[in-house]
Fold:
Amino acid sequence: MSFDGSDFYAALIHELKNSLALLSMSIERIPQQGEARHDAPVDEARLLCQGVIDRLNQALLIYKAANGPIHPMIDAGSPHDLVHELAEQTMALARGRIRVETAVSDAVPALWFFDRDLVGMALINAIHNALTYARSTIRIEADMVDGCLSLAVRDDSSGYPEHILTSVATGVPYRATGTGLGLQFSRLIAQSHDNRGRSGELRLSNDGGAVFRLMLP
Amino acid sequence: MSLNPAAAGETSIDYAALRALVVDDSPGMRSALRLTLANFGITKIQMVANAAEAIFQIRNRPCDFILCDFNLGEGRDGQQLLEELRHSHLISLETVFMMVTAESFYEKVVATAELAPDDYMIKPFSAEVLRNRLEGILLRKRAFAPVYRHFEAQELEEAIAGCDALMRGKPKYAVDAMRFKGELLVAAGRFDEAEALYQQVISMRAIPWARLGLARAMHMQNKDQAAEEELRDVLEHAPEMVSAYDLLSDVCLAQKNPAGAQAALEQGVAISAKTVRRQQKLGEVAHANGDLDTARTAFTQAVEKGRHSIFVTPADYGNLCRVQIEQGDLKAVADTLKKNRSTLQSSPEGQLVMAVTQGMAHTHSGNLQEAARALDEAAGLRAAGIRGDAQLMLDLAGTCMAHGRNDEADAIVGEVARNAHDSDALLTKAKRIYSEAGRTDAGTGVLAAATGDVRKLNNEGVVLAQRGDFHGAVDKLLTACREAPYNPRIMMNAVWVILKYIDQIGMDEAMIGTARSYLAEAERQAPGHARIAGLRLQMKELETRFGIHRKSTA
Structure:
């Protein structure tokens, strides 16, 4: 019996995704008991499971990017719905431990053009980081900035360390692990969104906490 | 859930009333999905493991929401299931179909397929995302419900007006409304307006589906060069967009570039090999190009992948066997027939394919007695009114001639020619059969007589119509239809003059009935022909004007 390497790889990934889907659905069904000794490890497991899903998605994206540029599948989508969906995901992960707020400016149109899956992946990764570092609140925002749709995740942590801000601002990579790894991907995703010669951007800043902002032209 | 009935209209979903069907081959995933849906308040949940069970279930008990995994193990995949459900009208436009996929690549193939699901979920996903997506689709379908109802009652004008209303009144659904309106305009034969609409979408953002729509609208107006440029550029940016290859092959054929058409289909097949219709088309184009190896592979794939698929017809087995005979591989022919014997025996069309193929194969191997027996059987089926496609009938004619059954052969060729009086490809093939049999002159006579009668009646009818004598025109064309009962061009002309006639003298119930059945037959013979949509629209307008309601449109 012999294996075709790529088929074998694809089948493995398929199985891995199925198992992760089952695992995350199983964890989601464990009821809260209002007792820290029970709830805290379950919440931790839930976050860790999401973290594994993030890393897997990033690994697959890197695999695709290695085989050619990322082609985002851009279609019309509602920024309002996206913020709402992310907020519900965040609340499910936060389990009342962290307050989740949303703010969609009146300037945001009913529809914008972006790859819902890629943008969602970048934002949920930022949200997972925020859930780890935030003191009490996470805020998911949509606004129009410089003619771009700006989607931001804001927390009240002590903010991004200086070397990360510099690295993302200058585009010079650094030893990417953990938080930094996700940011590199988010930058790739933002840049793959271009419109009439203008590319998307990832902007990081510290403003009463960490502010992660995707700018989509 | 809101108990306030006023508020319930716009934004709330009654999950308890929603009938759901989960299609997944993994028992673990089925039960996990059921528990997740139950958490939303969905209690009416059926679960099945594959496409066949899903179709059975839906036939017995319609459902509102189908959550289907793309990968269903052996047999049909989720996309094939969706195509069959829509094609056989087992689900309406109001039914929600969501595809679940773990394939990092197929998500794009699925989302950009010609028949796309309402949404797709990439595994692993969270319950919140699933609920949000489902709710979004249900609310959207609620907003589109009047449009869908008009569409399903064939009231295209009203459906288009409904899309316009959504574009004005519901900014959130504006692009969805434009997308559906584009399809409606194409269905109504208003290709120039469709082109303008797609240009309008593209001016906002060059999204692939809009560019594909633009190319289709241009192709329907014979602007094939522009359509080809558009498609080649789309594919450079979105190479996984399979339906673009299908359209590109049509565009190439329209420009008499069969090699380009074959190349396009081969690229499409390389991305998604399971679509039966793409394999069928590749087989036909490759066969016409003389590339027998490719044709054989494609027809084999069509028959294999499409086992149990409604898109596979007896003609597919005939096509495969024809290639195998042309390759001189008579053993393969015998294997194909043996393997699919029960399928072919189950319908008279299948029996005809079997008889003709056996007749050809036995003739090639010199087994003349067996061949004659097969030809007798084919003759019997033909006498009973059974017909195959034109290729099969010409094969039958050629085999008859090889056995000296010239009168039978001439009758068959005459019938094929009458029904395809304007098809150069078929007439050329018919001529070749005669020249191979050393009966070139006889062939010229048969073809001239057959096409001449029909052409004469058709031209006379059209001239009378142009002079305003619609009564005379109807007479001529109905005679032509009786002479050539499967000729789509003649039938469309007949429908056209009948509608003109009614427009002039008033409603004639029997006449419109005739027109209706000829239009249906024309569509069976030439599915998707550019004229059909326009004729259907004219008929609808007449029916509305004279107060005929075929479907209850309350």
In short: Chain A has two domains: 5-66, 75-216. The beta strands of chain A are 75-77, 99-104, 112-114, 137-145, 148-155, 194-195, 198-199, 201-206, 210-216.
